[in-house]
Amino acid sequence: MSKIRLLSPRLANQIAAGEVVERPASVIKELLENSLDAGAQQLQIDIEQGGVKLMRVRDDGNGIEKDDLPLALSRHATSKIYHLDDLEAVASLGFRGEALASISSVSRLTLTSNTGESAAWQAKCEGRDMETELAPAAHPQGTSVEVRDLFFNTPARRKFLRTEKTEYNRIEDIVKGLALSRFDVGFHLRHNSRLIHSFRKAEQTLEKERRVAQICGAGFMDNAVAIDIERTGLRLWGWVALPSFSRSQADLQYFYVNGRAIRDRLVSHAVRQAYQDVLYHGRHPAFVLYLELDPANVDVNVHPTKHEVRFRDGRVVHDFLYRSLHHALADVRPEHQLAKSE
Ligand code: ADP
Ligand code: MG
């Protein structure tokens, strides 16, 4: 008898889930990104017991057609790219078509949606063979995804979860990171039925700065300079803290490339270099920065979590970042030099 067998869909999804769904915060990241991709304006996030018991994201986006509900939960099913060419210039946060399939394979997932054209429908998924049950439901235009009992069927993964507080804090970090990427969207976060954060839609500069202060603290905003520099197809804007607001940890560093939060060695290096002669050794700068460039010049499909990017011309990007930040900090040299506080 043949020894090679195809994995069942559920097992294949559970294996894929290992890459995408590490902890409750990774679920929240995927759900919020889906809502943003669906054009949502308001996001309600409900968490119970650090997300292990329940995570619910409710949005007012485009919604999902009844017939698409089972597809949304299937692996490699996406509405965001259809051709390889689309990947060249992908504008959405998602595109791999894996998140909902992965999450539903390690939790009890309910997807309820209304496209605004007819009644709402609900799909539940915790079946052994990834079968989905459809039923009529009540829901205004938009989508709710409810994820219960994360890792209930994968005890090995559940063991790696930390305390409720730690898992909740990571969720909060994800929400803050996304809230800084989309000032035009309202984010409302509840934990154990208590409203913890309400970031209202921010259009004017003052409203945006208020959101940044809510997330990074008033101290950051009081010590930050706003920058907005554009050169040959590259734009860098945001807020950089003066050296007088340096940190003992790299905990206030937000960097977005075309709206996507990323960690990148080239970027870190350019920033570090710009701050080099104004910061004490071992101190870390604080910043909220947005780099915008032609999507064709940056590859986001490097890693399943999409935290990494690859620039077509890394040197040019590095140079531009270094020069822009160096320039922004130039006004504070040398009198703020090596200033130290927290
Ligand atoms: P991806 O985001 O990579 O396409 P997902 O598994 O996260 O893959 O989602 C699968 C599909 O389900 C999406 O392409 C989208 O069409 C649909 N979808 C998921 N969440 C939402 C939502 N909140 N609103 C509208 N459509 C959604
Ligand atoms: Mg997605």
UniProtKB/TrEMBL annotation:
Keywords: DNA damage, DNA repair, Endonuclease, Hydrolase, Nuclease. This protein is involved in the repair of mismatches in DNA. It is required for dam-dependent methyl-directed DNA mismatch repair. May act as a 'molecular matchmaker', a protein that promotes the formation of a stable complex between two or more DNA-binding proteins in an ATP-dependent manner without itself being part of a final effector complex. The keyword Methyltransferase does not apply. One of its GO terms (molecular function) is endonuclease activity. The chain holds residues 1 to 342 of 653 of the full protein. The lineage of its organism: Bacteria, Pseudomonadati, Pseudomonadota, Gammaproteobacteria, Cellvibrionales. The keyword Hydrolase applies. Belongs to the DNA mismatch repair MutL/HexB family. Residues 212-330 form the DNA mismatch repair protein S5 domain. Residues 333-342 have a biased composition (Basic and acidic residues). This is DNA mismatch repair protein MutL.
